[in-house]
Design goal:
alpha/beta, TIM Barrel, 8-stranded parallel beta barrel, two-stranded antiparallel sheet, 15 helices, binds flavin mononucleotide, binds iron/sulfur cluster
């Protein structure tokens, strides 16, 4: 099967981008990565950011557990100055998996300890944590809630891919939607969760609007009737109300959001073995339920609405936007360009570099629309050893303010410190986008209903045996 990542030098990467019809800059001067940046009046000591990376390793009742603390200790000590704590559900029935973290009375001590562990590790390894920001992503999993899908809208392409495990029934047009009153209660839950996060000392919260979880689905809910669907003003009602209430009820808390700026449509594998290649699911045009997507050609982004939402978010008081794309269940090649497909995925339908370039292109346009607030770019890990050079070029040119590293942090949690001291990553720890971490996320045959995730190839001691166990069970 095709191997895409064959680069020996930055020149090779740039030449490949050019052969694909795109410009990509990589910079040998990494100093832009180590310039401080101001986020909502607070200083972050460098431009390197650990993306929210769910470990699926909490307790059944939603508290961080041993492996969770280990991860945050490693992230905290790794040298990045913004640590974006992972998806944490705003109430029990909206968790995406049985071990997802939960914000609730009984989890407060654990979530506070998680923050303390992160900061203590940072002080131990980096000296000063006065310029470190630690946040938490607050989520409602919507249609991907593990107990029962909770839909904001009917999506003709995503509905048939979802089974309600509580009944065994596939979701169809007769499946009931969350009511407007339900959404009002969800606003309350977001505000309570934000207040709790502030009380625990988190510097910022992320109102998660990505990857087609609930708030991301609402952005696309053109066909939803009532106060929260149809026009863009209605589709942003929930986030607008929540931001307004947090600003008045929890003053001082920085508000961030991770937002899908291009949804695309779901793909499925077609073919056998290594020819099992992603193809778009059959669909009718115009598309009715994909945000940031040209309704006449799903492969193209249409950023008219995302740009407007970014400007609105800035005006409503959001201090930081983390730009992302795609749907981890529907089109994994969009959210996480990878050399090897995840267990529930397909071989890539496009050169993964095109996926990386899509991330860069979209983030750049959002940053240009809201130069007053910092934008975080995503999708760097496929670039492997060259990800820092791409990040440095993007930051030097002002295309984004911060570079978010996702899978790269599981294999190489001290990537930022290594870059600063050695001027390069440690080759033996660079994520090769093998997708085992996603495989672990998808592995459910575990007494707690979910295997924990991490990096089996490069964090072997802990995750090697866990991966072996998954293999034995399948
Ligand atoms: C194991 C795993 C867990 C993830 N958890 C989250 C999460 O909690 N919240 C989120 O917004 N994205 C999550 N993501 C997506 C990543 O943050 C990131 O956007 C994606 O991996 C692409 O960036 P990368 O190329 O640097 O890996 C997760 C991805 C993986 C592989
Ligand atoms: S398992 Fe490790 S090497 Fe593979 S994609 Fe995940 S972080 Fe990267």
């Amino acid at each position: 099967m095709a191997r895409y990542f064959k680069y020996k030098s930055t020149a090779d990467v740039m030449a490949d981008a050019q052969s694909l019809g795109h410009e990509l800059a990589l910079a040998d001067d990494l100093s832009p990565l180590f310039r401080p940046v101001t986020i909502g009046g607070r200083k972050a000591g460098n431009r390197l950011l650990v993306q929210p990376m769910e470990g699926c390793d909490g307790t059944l009742d939603g508290r961080p557990d041993e492996l969770t603390f280990r991860r945050y200790q490693r992230f905290g000590g790794g040298g990045a100055k913004v640590i974006w704590g992972e998806a944490t559900a705003i109430c029990d029935e909206v968790r995406a998996n049985t071990r997802q973290l939960l914000m609730a009375e009984h989890t407060l001590t654990g979530l506070e300890q998680m923050r303390r562990v992160t900061r203590a590790a940072h002080r131990a390894e980096c000296g000063d944590d006065g310029d470190l920001l630690v946040g938490l992503q607050l989520t409602h999993s919507g249609r991907y809630s593990v107990r029962k899908p909770l839909l904001a809208m009917h999506d003709p392409l995503l509905d048939p891919l979802i089974v309600d495990k509580s009944t065994g029934r596939r979701v169809d047009a007769s499946y009931s939607l969350l009511s407007d009153d339900d959404l009002k209660r969800i606003e309350d839950q977001f505000v309570v969760a934000a207040r709790r996060a502030a009380h625990l000392g988190y510097d910022f919260i992320d109102l998660k609007q990505c990857h087609r979880y609930l708030l991301s689905e609402l952005l696309a809910a053109k066909n939803r009737p009532g106060e929260y669907g149809g026009c863009l003003e209605n589709r942003t009602r929930l986030i607008r109300n929540v931001i307004g209430r947090i600003r008045s009820e929890v003053p001082g808390l920085l508000i961030a959001t991770r937002m899908n700026c291009y949804d695309g449509i779901p793909y499925r594998g077609v073919g056998e073995g290594e020819n099992f290649i992603g193809q778009p699911c059959p669909h009718e045009l115009p598309l009715v339920a994909a945000f940031g997507t040209n309704p006449h050609d799903h492969r193209e982004e249409d950023l008219t609405e995302p740009l407007q939402v970014a400007r609105d978010l800035r005006d409503w008081g959001v201090s930081l936007i983390n730009v992302t794309l795609g749907n981890p269940y529907g089109n994994p090649h969009v959210i996480r360009p990878a050399e090897f497909p995840p267990i529930d995925g397909y071989y890539p339908p496009e050169h993964p570099l095109l996926g990386v370039l899509r991330h860069f292109r979209v983030a750049r346009q959002i940053q240009a629309a809201v130069p007053e607030i910092p934008i975080v770019g995503s999708g760097y890990s496929w670039l492997q050893d060259f990800a820092p050079q791409a990040a440095a070029a993007n930051i030097a040119a002002g295309h984004v303010a911060l570079a978010g590293f996702g899978r790269a942090t599981l294999s190489h949690p001290d990537f930022a410190r290594t870059l600063q001291t050695e001027g390069r990553l440690n080759r033996k720890q660079v994520c090769r986008t093998f997708s085992y971490c996603t495989g672990l996320m998808r592995a459910k045959d575990h007494p707690l209903g979910q295997f924990p995730t991490g990096c089996p190839p490069f964090d072997k001691e802990v995750y090697g045996p866990i991966w072996k166990e998954v293999e034995q069970r399948t």
